[in-house]
Design brief:
mainly alpha; 0% strand; rod-shaped; cytoplasm; cytoskeleton; DASH_Dad4; microtubule; centromere
């Protein structure tokens, strides 16, 4: 005759292992998704940096052109 306590423990351990395996699989899927998001964000960050630098360059050129225009039109 088997020990009912040991039987119950074996069933519980089996459930724990099954659930742990499912959790591990889910975490691996989550890691893969996060990797994809990080990669996508890298490209977005690059585009954002280029856009910001372009805006700064345009602003600098507009300020410079305005200053240049003002200097030439203010002379008698």
């Amino acid at each position: 005759m088997e020990n009912p306590h040991a039987e119950r423990q074996a069933v519980l351990l089996e459930r724990i292992l099954k659930n742990t395996s499912k959790c591990t699989e889910t975490i691996l899927e989550l890691n893969n998704s996060l990797e994809e998001i990080i990669q996508a964000n890298y490209h977005l960050q690059t585009a954002a940096n280029l856009s910001m630098q372009y805006r700064k360059n345009v602003q600098y050129n507009l300020t410079s052109a305005k200053s240049h225009h003002t200097q030439h039109h203010d002379k008698p």
